[in-house]
Amino acid sequence: MNILQKFFTTEGRLNRGRFFKYYIAVTIMGATATFVTSCMATLLTGDPNGTLVKMITVTWAVLATAGACMLMVRRLHDLNKNGAFFLVSFIPVVGLIFMVYLFFKEGTAGYNQYGADPLQN
Fold first, then answer.
1. Of 6, 17, 21, 15, nearest to 120 (Cα)?
2. Is-contact 50 57, C-beta < 8 A?
3. SS3 of 1, please?
4. Mapping DSSP to helix (H, G, I), strand (E, B) and coil, where does residue 8 land?
5. DSSP 8-state code for residue 107
6. pTM: predicted TM-score of the whole model, two decimal places
C-alpha cells in the first residue's frame, strides 16, 4: 500500500493509534507544504497576498482537509459507525469534542460490517 492509498481511501478500518499517527502526519505535511510553497510564491511574485500565493495555499489546504476527512471515515468504520459522521467535525466546539472521541474511543473488537479488526492484522 503506497502513501496515497494510506491517506486517500475510505475503505476499511483504522485503529486509534494509526489514526493519531496519520492525522498528525497529514496536519504537519499540509502545514509545511503550504508554508514552503507560499514562501516560494511570495519570493517569486514579491506579493504575500497575491493570487498565486492564495491559490497554492487553498490547494494544499483542500488536499490536507480531504486526507484528514478520509482518515476520520476509516476511524469511524473502526467504531462501526457510518463514515458520514465525519461531518460533525466541522461544527465548532462539537467538532473538537468529536475529535477527542475519535482519538480515545476503543474500536470494535473483531470483524464488523466495514472489515476485519485492524489490530488483528
1. 15
2. no
3. coil
4. coil
5. P
6. 0.83
Q: What is the DSSP letter of 87?
A: G
Contacts of 48 (CB under 8 A, 6+ apart): 38, 42
Cβ count near 121 (within 10 Å): 9
- Give the mean pLDDT per block of 10 residues along the chain (121 residues): 70 89 87 83 80 82 88 93 92 94 91 86 64
Domain map of the chain by residue range?
13-104
Query: Contact at 8 Å (CB) between 42 and 57?
Result: no
State the residue for C-alpha cell 503550504: 34
Cell of residue 8, nine digits = 486517500
Helix (H, G, I), strand (E, B) or coil at 112: strand
Give every CB contact of residue 106 below 8 A, 6+ residues apart in sequence.
16
- How many angstroms separate the first and last alpha carbons of the chain? 14
